[in-house]
Amino acid sequence: TRAQVRDDLTVLYPKSEWLFNRAAASHRQESFRVGIFASDDLVPMNRLQTYGYILFLCLSIVSGMLLYSGPAWPNSRRPAAPGNQKTPHLSMPYTVVDMGEIDQGKDSEATFYIQNKGNAALMIDNLTVSDSAAVLELTANVVRPSEEAILRCVLDTSNMQGRIIIHIAFHSNDPEHPATTLQATGVIRPLLGLETPLIFAGQIGKEAPFSKTVALNGTLVREGKCDGLKVYVNSPFIQATIVKKRHGDKITPMLHILVPADMKAGTFKEVIRVVSENPAAEVSLVVAGQKLGVIQVKPDRLAFFSPKGADPGSRTVVLESQKVFHIKEIQDLSGLLSLSVQTVRPGKCYEITAAIKKGMLKGNSFLGLVQVHTDLEEHPLIDLPVLIGVNQ
What we know:
- The chain is built from 2 helices and 29 strands.
- It has helices at about 45-70, 220; strands at about 5-10, 15-25, 30-35, 45, 90, 95-105, 110-115, 120-130, 135-140, 140-145, 150-155, 160-170, 180-190, 195, 200-205, 210-215, 230-235, 240-245, 250-260, 265-275, 280-290, 295-300, 300-305, 315-320, 325-330, 335-345, 350-355, 365-375, 380-390.
- Strands 6-13-12-8-10 form a 5-stranded mixed sheet, with no helix packed on it. A 4-stranded antiparallel sheet has the order 1-2-3-4, with no helix packed on it. Strands 5-7-11-9 form a 4-stranded antiparallel sheet, with no helix packed on it.
- The termini are far apart.
């Protein structure tokens, strides 16, 4: 009976109560008896049922602990936590090198330092460079932690002039920097140069000559090594020679150009080469213009300038000669103009009217050319430059 039970221990759960009773030693009952109270009624169990419930409770507790704490495999087989993974870390003090001014013909070098500040080996591959005149040298493709590799870009400047930018790229196994881009910049001072690469003579009168002097520069000029310079001209009509001009104590070599008065009428474009044999160096000058003949052209160009969105209107050029001539063909090389010809005096004077085609004015400046072909042997071709500009 309940009065005979002592040393009771009760454990409360949400829906039931478990009561472990130890019977008095003086009674002839089982050593242990367990009862479950759903309410106030006691349900007695035999010894086998008691042990079964105890075993079930133990297994439940152990299973819960295993599920909460994770699998009990050795630490060597556990996957490493993200914060404990070993990874390389690429670091560079700088990624752009300015090599400054470099004399043409002399090799130049840009040096980069690739450091590994991670805790795993850094792998470098797929090195590329944007210029074939540059050669890359890498001291190591595998960089250990706390070490560095040196990347050198050696540049052959024999065929380079002016401002240069060399792009270098490589890949690595750094997850934060899988691709890296570097730059090497500099200015190549030529062995031999000109103050301008082009002379536009414009329209030269029938009996008028044209002359121009262009200063030479470069390392050879600064060092006074211009005595052996040679000049080559393809045209038999244009003359070019080296002259020396004194500025105080300094003597500067100059390239003198002459278009003679008796040059045949027509458009010309000639290339003049100045060559040094030792050391080997060369520079070119382009001379372009139009030698007028018996046909007078007024004005000597078609210029269209207007505010943005406004119609620039039309332009007229007059061709006049004392000799009889006829216009055979007119060509607009730009394709932007509509052209028409009006005879003012047959065989003596013509007017050419040009207008920009509708929808062709896009808001940008443009340079073009209109060619007029005539049947006059002394003046078979007339070039009319076309200038189109829009004021924003």
